[in-house]
Structures are given as C-alpha cells and as structure tokens.
Amino acid sequence: MTANPSAFQPFTLGPITLRNRFIKSGANEGMCLEGRPTAALVNHHRELAAGGVGMTTVAYMAVSSVGRTLPNQTWMRREILPDLRALTDAVHGEGAAISAQITHGGSFVTGMHVRGRLISASSGLNPAGLMKANFLQRKMNESDMDRVTDEFVEAAKLAREAGFDAVEIHMGHGYLLNQFISPMSNRRSDEYGGSAENRARFPARVLAAVRDAVGDDIAVLAKINVADGPSRGATVEDGIVTAKVLQEAGAHMLVLSGGRNVESTWFMFGSNMNREEIIKVMKLIGDRLGAFMMKVAAASERKIEFREMYFRDYSQKIRAAVDLPLAYLGGVKSLDNVETAMADGFDAVVLARALLRDPDLVTQFRNGTMRQSRCDNCNACVAYIYHPDGTRCIHRGANDPQANRVFASDWQSVGR
C-alpha cells in the first residue's frame, strides 16, 4: 500500500479489489418482505453503486429467522437465492462490489416477538425486548455456539453463491456477538467472560469458521465497536484487544463503529436521535406503545452536538495497535474528512447518512463538483427503517411504495 493513498485509488481487500476506497455502511434499510429482499432494496443499492461507491453493504441479513431484530429484515436461506442474485447483479452492473452484513440479534429483538427465551452471552431479564414481550434471555452453551457458528458459515456460503464480494460479520451495536464482547451484556465467569480476550473468544471463533469456509473466494470483514459509550461498557482499550484477536482469527478488514442500539445511540450517531420523526413514523404504523416509549426516552436523553469525525480519536488508537486493514466510520461529511482518514492510515472510509442525502456523493467528490455533503445530521432517516416504504433522507423525494411490496426477483415481471 502506498503512503497516504487517495481514496479514489483501487484497493485490494483480501481476495477482491475495489474500484475505490469508499464503502456504503450497512444501515437497516427496511426494504424486505417476508424475510426476502424487495425491488426497493435493489433500487437503493443500485443507486449507491451508480453514484460511485467502491462497495455497498446490504444491512442486517440475519443468519436465521430468530436472528432478526425487526420483521422487515432479510434472513438467509436458499429460497431467497434469486432475490439475492437480483441484488448483486444490479450492483455489479454499475461497477461496484457488494457486501452482505450477516449477523444475529441474540436477545436484542425490539421489533417482533420470539417464542421462548432469546439467546445471549448471559441469562436474565432482557430490557431490549420488553416492548415485544421478549422478557427473558438465556446464557448460550457450547451447543448453542456450535449451532450459531454453523448458521454464520451457511449464511456466508449462500452469500458467496449469490454473488456477494464480501461478508461483514456484525459484532457491534448490541447484537449477539457484541453481547459477548461488551461487559454491559457479558457476565460470564467461564472462558468466554471476564477479560477482554475471553469476551472476544466466541466472535473470533465465528469469524475464523467463516474465513475457513469462504475466505479464499470473498472478503471477510467484521464490524466492531471502538467503544460502547457508557462508562460501564467496553472501552477503546477493549476495542484494541478485540481488533488484535480478530486480526489473529483472519479478518481481511475491520470496520470501526461504536455505540449500542439501546444504551448509547447518541454515541453511535455522534448526535441525538430524531425522536420526533420516529414518533411520527411509529404512529403511522400504529405502534402507539413505541411512540410513547420514544417520548419517554427523549425526555431523559443527554444533548449531544454533532461534530465531524467523532470516532477519530478512538479509531487512531486501534490503528496504532494492529496491522490489518481498517475502515474509518463516524462523521465523514467532506472530502477534507476523507483525506484526513487516509492520512491517518485508514484503508477505506465508510459513510451512511451522507450517502442517503447524496447517493452520488463519491462521483461529486471525484469530479470536484462537491466537497461537502449536504447531510445536516438530523437523523430523521433512522426513523424510516420502520416505514413501510423503507429508509430515506427526508430532504429527498419519497420512495416508490410499490417497489417495497414486490420481491426483488419478481421486479422485472412487473416493470421498473
């Protein structure tokens, strides 16, 4: 790798090469029907690919039906292969690569009821599931770990068959693998609990198994937290340990994020959630309890002012500690930010909100027609993962509602 490469230069990532170093972050799209990708999801990622990203990431593809956190998420099984292929073909047709973010929610299931106790690192009350009567969680045993590891492997193999160029194993934000990494969830006293090394042991086991199964054919990434945010959560020192363990397990690259979906969204987004917009969407879909809970949360949430590159200090510490490729994420809004990340030694930059506002932002950066995203970090886009038409920037036109009611593989037959 050349010193301080341009983000517009190609990037070799494990067995694949990206046309540039811009990656669309995995961010729940709400564009799924009966656990299958819709035409809206195809259109969404095609637009991002046409806009110039090197790789786009399809968010939250659960490795099993009980691994979903919301009903409008894809779960990986052979019956949806034609839909997955429609998605990868569309992105490849625009010259970009495509990554499948594979994960399992564990006990973090906020949008649907699951029968029985949900699995997690530890047993006990499950605060994240209270609104959907998922009251209890149980501590995973070795049999559970073997089963879940196999589910990740099978999901990765299906992604490879469907034409994905990479898989991103989500180990952050409070989902199952993060429930092992974070001391906020992991109260175990066996070899999977206690020290930061022990807490990363099961996630590393999953990654190593996936790498063994598909790593010569597609890139294997992991998304981790640089820190959880709250004082009782994982620190950047824990993040360094996690990064080292995953480097040893064979990750081709780590995507550095932060925060947890329940306890610290303010840390994850570098600013407050748009509770008003979420309440509006919740009322639209008839979720009065959800709207009420959002009002309660808004009343007690600390006020955070957005600043660009808000994870930089944390991420630089991890960059100094490991040798594998790292992708910077968190508050990149301008070409100056991108150049700073490259100068800091990061191998790629990952964006979400800025690309929802301007899907062609990379092309605009490259052509010199724009140096700063028009995203105002209002975070209203987050509310639309619950909307029947799927996520969008509120400053752009509404999504085509029909497209989110047609399976991806059927879209050609109804016209587009």
List keywords for this structure.
three-stranded mixed sheet; eight-stranded parallel barrel; 15% strand; 16 helices; alpha/beta; 416 residues
Distance N terminus to C terminus? 42 Å
- Helical region count? 16
Low-confidence stretches: none
Largest sheet: 8 strands, parallel, barrel
Query: Approximately how much beta-strand content do the residues carry?
Result: 15-25%
Structural class: alpha/beta
Shape: globular
Average pLDDT level: 94
Rg: 20 Å
Strand order of the largest sheet: 3-6-8-12-13-14-15-16
How many E strands? 16
Helix content: 25-40%
Question: What is the strand and helix layout of this fold?
Answer:
Layout: E1 11-13, E2 16-18, E3 22-24, E4 32-33, E5 36-37, H1 39-50, E6 55-62, E7 74-75, H2 81-93, E8 97-103, E9 118-120, E10 124-125, E11 136-139, H3 142-162, E12 166-170, H4 176-181, H5 196-199, H6 201-214, E13 219-225, H7 236-249, E14 253-257, H8 265-269, H9 275-284, H10 288-300, H11 312-321, E15 326-329, H12 335-343, E16 348-351, H13 353-357, H14 361-367, H15 380-383, H16 411-414
Parallel strand pairs: 3-6, 3-16, 6-7, 6-8, 8-12, 9-11, 12-13, 13-14, 14-15, 15-16
Antiparallel strand pairs: 1-2, 4-5, 10-11
Helix pairs in contact: 1-2, 2-3, 3-6, 6-7, 7-11, 9-10
